[in-house]
Amino acid sequence: MIRCQGRIVTGDEVQSLQHEIERHTRGTKKFVLQMAEVKYVDSGGLGAMVRLAGVLRSGRGDLKLCQMSPFVLEVLEATALLKVFHTYASEKEAVDAFLDGPQPHGATSLGLGGKVICCIDPSLDLLAYLNALLKRSGYEVLTTHSLSHAKTLVKAMKPHVVVCGPGLWANEFAIETLRESAPNAQFLMLSSDFSTTEASQAGLDLVDRLGALLNPPPS
User: Fold this and answer.
1) Is 122 exposed, middle or buried (0-12, 13-18, 19+ CB in 10 A)?
2) pLDDT band at 103, cuts 50/70/90?
3) Segment 4-15 mean pLDDT
4) Taking the CA of residue 16 as centre, how many other CA atoms within 13 Å lie in the half-sphere pointing to its CB?
5) In the chain, what are the domains?
6) Which phi-psi region, left, alpha or beta, contains residue 120 (left: φ > 0; alpha: ψ -120 to 50)?
7) How many CB atoms lie within 10 A of CB 9?
8) CA distance linking residue 93 with residue 180, whole number of Å
9) 94 pLDDT above the threshold of 50
10) Of 12, 71, 107, 187, whose CB neighbour count within 10 A is largest?
């Protein structure tokens, strides 16, 4: 049981949460985050939660949430990521749920067959957020943190849109190489502060921008 307070955001806060989980993973892969006093979550923080849940589930564990504050609930509902997590009203319900064994979740259940979006950034937390957000929005999503892999990926998969994270801003050569590898794709550059923007605001803005790119209004 980890009782969170204040903020879950990119930087020291996310690193502290990750270290706390890693400190105990030799003994268990089953964790509950009590969220009653969480006042703010940015897109990088929510991505870290999604990524950690995936890591724990791969080891037959989970990252469950309980007693979510109104802010956390609003963020998860606005980004359509509520069903990615198993959520409970109390600590006891969350802990008892582990007795029922592994449960299905919605992290990858949507998005197959839609427009293909390729997301590239060095941050695994940001990629986890984009992957979950865009799949829940109906897209087929490919992600990579490797520029060499990204070049091969866009050539092979011919995505409709390539989303370049803030970690690529300083590498104009890499972006130009990606454009040459995917001449028919549209490119969407995330702002430099995307990872530190409040999670629901960042997510809704991105979904709106993708919709405008893929379905432009008639001229």
Assistant:
1) middle
2) low
3) 94
4) 12
5) 2-100 (3.30.750.24), 116-214 (3.40.50.2300)
6) beta
7) 20
8) 52
9) yes
10) 107
Per-residue CA distances from 166 to 21, 55, 84, 212 (Å): 27, 24, 25, 20
Taking residue 111's Cβ as centre, other Cβ atoms within 10 Å add up to 19
Strand partners, 119: 143, 163
The reported pTM is 0.87
Sign of CA dihedral 145, 151, 156, 158: positive
Confidence of residue 109 (pLDDT cuts 50, 70, 90): very low
Q: Which residues contact 1 (CB under 8 A, 6 or more apart)?
A: 31, 32, 34, 91, 95
Residues in the chain: 219
**If we measure between CA atoms, which residue out of 177, 38, 26, 109 comes closest to residue 17?**
38
What integer is the mean pLDDT of 204-218?
89
Which DSSP symbol is given to 218?
P
SS3 170: coil
* 56 backbone dihedrals φ, ψ, rounded to 5°: -65, -40
Place of tokens 């204040």: 6
Q: pLDDT tens across 15-55, in order?
A: 999 999 999 988 899 999 999 999 999 999 999 999 999 99
User: Which of these, 21, 64, 48, lies nearest to 199 by C-alpha position?
Assistant: 48
CB 45 within 8 A of CB 200: no
CA dist 117 and 206 (Å) reads 12
* Concatenated DSSP letters of 8-30: E-TTHHHHHHHHHHHHHTTT-SE
